[in-house]
Amino acid sequence: MRFLVIGGSGFLGSHIIEALRARRVDYKQPISIAVYDIVKPLPEETIDAVTYYVGDIVNEAKLTEVMKEFQPNLVFHTASPLHGLPPAVYYRVNVEGTRTVFSSCRAASVKNVIYTSSMGVIWTGAELDGVSEDQVSIPKHGYDAYHHTKAAAELISLDENGVDGMRVVVLRPCGIFGERDKQMFWRMAEVLEKGQQNVQIGSNTSLVDYAYVGNVAHAHVLAADKLLTEPDTVTGQVFFITNGTPMTH
Ligand code: NAD
């Protein structure tokens, strides 16, 4: 069983690899894992027995070549730029890059894709409490370029479902915390270290969902299991991934 993790040098991608390896026995056949990412992980974060391909997600020739060489049974598409970059970067990587993933899959006859979206794709800035996947649709204009393009990539992915036998599952994680997080929680720790936590913006009653990265990775592995063994139960579906207990923020 062969898995390609696009964006696998990153935080969540590396945990998906660990979760896949921890469940090796369940596939009843050896598993092989490869990463396609614009960067290699740090030496101390490189995982043994994983093949690392370095390339840009929008480089269709390179990604197709990698898919043809590695022949994955399933692709996890977790690549996305960091927060705080110019809008053009998000359009390029999330929108153009997601289209490229599917054209490369088609060229290499890869039929199973799990797209890592974000819970934020449905957010307009207004309060959302206890909503399920079928209660709220994606707004025409997302909250910012990151969320707008994550939503566009989600719609591209769902449009591909069923085309030429393509099977797609979309996962929408909430904010993720855990080992190797480089975006979010070190900033909170820095605020605490500097004693800046007395500054409060807003009423401190807003609720936000967070989930542990190991659980979000596990959700990806469960989605992969279902897609590979009982595809009709998950194909074309979208799932929120949350720990179920929102926190004030
Ligand atoms: P991350 O930055 O650690 O990982 C993303 C990976 O994508 C990086 O390794 C990066 O090098 C790669 N990448 C970026 N641009 C690329 C390009 N042009 N070509 C190839 N690879 C490229 O981020 P993460 O937190 O692990 O996020 C993984 C996924 O989960 C993303 O799709 C993100 O939108 C989604 N997500 C993250 C969170 C969170 O709180 N971290 C919450 C919801 C959804």
TrEMBL record:
Keywords on record: Oxidoreductase
Keyword Oxidoreductase: yes
Gene Ontology MF terms: oxidoreductase activity, acting on the CH-OH group of donors, NAD or NADP as acceptor
Residue ranges occupied by any 3-beta hydroxysteroid dehydrogenase/isomerase domain in the UniProt entry: 4-249
GO biological process: steroid biosynthetic process
Methyltransferase recorded as keyword: no
Family: Belongs to the 3-beta-HSD family.
Protein name: 3-beta hydroxysteroid dehydrogenase/isomerase domain-containing protein
Organism of origin: Marasmius oreades
Range covered out of full length: 1 to 249 of 354
